[in-house]
Amino acid sequence: MLSETDRKLLRILQEDGRITNQELAARCGMSPSACLERMRRLRERGYILGYAALLDPEKLGQPLLIFIEVTLDRTTGDVFREFAEAVRERAEIIECHMVAGGFDYLLKLRMPDMGTYRVFLTTLAEMPGVRETRSYPVIEEVKSGVALPV
């Protein structure tokens, strides 16, 4: 169970993953050694999975964000497994979620432009088990983030 202090630590870390232990401790009203110990426990218990830099997709030449619904031809373990393996090999697929409902997977992609995406569609159609896809290019990102409510 998380204490309110643990939750505060996690909220601050989500805002600024590069904060120093000294500053984090000060903002939480604790000593640096106590803060370091709490952080160690949160990592060991799996609350903190890792640290990453958030990159600007436009500056890296990948401004186009697309969501794709994927329906498989069969919903069997082997088809799920083969499709998942194929997805993991594609760097432009930045997220893949198996979902319940009218389709099987929801993909999130970053691409340089529609021409590159058109070429990718051929590859997607040839992935194991793919029967049908529906694409949703994003016109405007209204809210985007990775922080969890803590």
TrEMBL record:
Gene Ontology molecular function, alphabetical: sequence-specific DNA binding
InterPro entries listed in its UniProt record: AsnC-type_HTH_dom (IPR000485), Dimeric_a/b-barrel (IPR011008), Tscrpt_reg_AsnC-like (IPR019888), Tscrpt_reg_AsnC/Lrp_C (IPR019887), WH-like_DNA-bd_sf (IPR036388), WH_DNA-bd_sf (IPR036390)
Residue intervals of the HTH asnC-type domain: 2-63
GO biological process, one term: response to amino acid
GO CC terms of this entry: cytosol
PROSITE patterns the record matches: HTH_ASNC_2
Keyword Nucleotide-binding included in the entry's annotation: no
Keywords: Activator, DNA-binding, Transcription, Transcription regulation
Transmembrane segments: none
Pfam families in the cross-refs: AsnC_trans_reg, HTH_24
Keyword DNA-binding: yes
Protein name from the UniProt record: Winged helix-turn-helix transcriptional regulator
Organism of origin: Sphingomonas parva
